[in-house]
């Protein structure tokens, strides 16, 4: 079984934020199993302490068993299991295996950090209870002297283990913080993207298009540079929906957006301003260049059919209204002029392109 399969266990059908926490939990479990297995090997192979080695092996297996909870989608129980095993393990280390001089109880510091990271926002009770138990156990271990440890360690050995505990605590803290950071960045990107783009086609949404388009127009106006804009409207799109179904219609729109994006590589911006209407800004495009762009787009739409999931080839045409740089101050005015051109194009017939050029 690949590591990625283990990490994704339980996260498959969950919403993004829940899935992220599950994956983080699985990562932490894998890392903890690794650390615990390392100590097991050290007890068995280096210190030759079989009793402690096998007891520690039991704890290592117990951590790994958390996977089964995830496997059966008992997500909260998987997390509770993990923290319970961890706290019992640390207690056994400082009060049975060795003594508090090993510093194993320092690992309790990871419990509140991990609990607040891994449990859901509404699972406050679990986070607080686990944190309180971990704090209480830390002070219990710190103030209890185990007079009959299973392994009597030398001062040097205790010191080495103590340093390894600090080392692994640091590693876990760095990993947890990095994951936390990554989750926050991912969420920010998602929110940003959701505010700006249309969910179906991933083109700019109407609001953001007008905002960003205005910025482009302002730059062109203040530098006296050419600026064109195309308003497009699919012809008889209703027929595609009626004939193949709304979902295939959706796929057609995605296909169209992909085609539009493939033609835009010079700072153009594509907005979906209504159902089957897209608008494209063409900064630095003269009339001739805008004309070439529109014709190429029209040609590709007609000649590059969309192949649906059930292998049907669907062709269509698109009418366009093109407005070439003029005295407009706002992107809204430009779109409105392009709309007049589009209206003319529709009258001229499916697949037509009409231009309005109005020099300043
Ligand atoms: N599949 C799908 N269809 C959409 C979406 N938004 C709008 N539509 C459909 O687009 C069609 C637009 O129909 P009309 O306004 O009559 O336009 P048309 O059929 O393209 O006709 P003309 O523009 O006059 O050539 C309607 O059937 C809408 O339901 C969408 O997000 N997905």
TrEMBL record:
Keywords: Membrane, Nucleotidyltransferase, Transferase, Transmembrane, Transmembrane helix. SMART domains: GGDEF (SM00267). It catalyses: 2 GTP = 3',3'-c-di-GMP + 2 diphosphate. It is an enzyme of class 2 (transferase). Signal peptide: none annotated. The chain crosses the membrane at residues 27-46, 52-69, 81-98, 104-121, 128-154, 160-180. Residues 225-358 form the GGDEF domain. GO terms for molecular function: diguanylate cyclase activity. InterPro entries: Diguanylate_Cyclase, GGDEF_dom, MASE7, Nucleotide_cyclase, Rev_trsase/Diguanyl_cyclase. SUPFAM superfamilies: Nucleotide cyclase. Gene3D superfamilies: 3.30.70.270. This is diguanylate cyclase. The lineage of its organism: Bacteria, Pseudomonadati, Pseudomonadota, Gammaproteobacteria, Alteromonadales.
């Amino acid at each position: 079984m690949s590591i990625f399969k283990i990490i994704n266990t339980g996260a498959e059908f969950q919403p993004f934020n829940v899935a992220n926490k599950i994956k983080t939990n699985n990562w932490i479990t894998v890392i903890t199993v690794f650390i615990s297995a390392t100590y097991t090997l050290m007890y068995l192979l280096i210190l030759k302490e079989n009793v402690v080695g096998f007891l520690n092996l039991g704890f290592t297996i117990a951590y790994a068993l958390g996977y089964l909870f995830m496997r059966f989608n008992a997500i909260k129980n998987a997390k509770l299991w993990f923290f319970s095993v961890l706290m019992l393990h640390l207690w056994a280390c400082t009060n049975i295996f060795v003594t508090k001089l090993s510093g194993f109880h320092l690992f309790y510091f990871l419990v509140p950090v991990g609990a607040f990271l891994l449990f859901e926002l509404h699972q406050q009770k679990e986070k607080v209870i686990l944190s309180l138990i971990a704090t209480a156990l830390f002070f219990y271990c710190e103030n209890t002297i185990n007079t009959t440890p299973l392994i009597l360690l030398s001062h040097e050995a205790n010191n080495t283990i103590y340093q390894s505990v600090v080392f692994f605590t640091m590693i876990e803290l760095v990993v947890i913080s990095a994951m936390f950071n990554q989750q926050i960045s991912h969420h920010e990107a998602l929110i940003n993207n959701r505010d700006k783009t249309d969910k179906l086609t991933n083109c700019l949404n109407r609001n953001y298009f007008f905002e960003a388009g205005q910025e482009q127009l302002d730059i062109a106006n203040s530098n006296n540079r050419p600026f064109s804009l195309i308003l497009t409207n699919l012809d008889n799109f209703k027929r595609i929906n009626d004939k193949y179904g709304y979902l295939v219609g959706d796929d057609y729109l995605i296909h169209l957006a992909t085609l539009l994006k493939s033609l835009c590589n010079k700072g153009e911006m594509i907005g979906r301003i209504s159902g089957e209407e897209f608008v494209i800004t063409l900064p630095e495009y003269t009339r001739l260049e805008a004309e070439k762009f529109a014709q190429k787009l029209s040609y590709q739409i007609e000649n590059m059919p969309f192949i649906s999931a059930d292998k049907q080839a669907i062709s269509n045409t698109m009418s366009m209204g093109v407005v070439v740089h003029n005295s407009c101050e706002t992107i809204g005015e430009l779109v409105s002029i392009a709309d007049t051109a589009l209206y003319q194009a529709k009258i001229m017939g499916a697949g037509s392109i009409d231009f309005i050029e109005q020099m300043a």
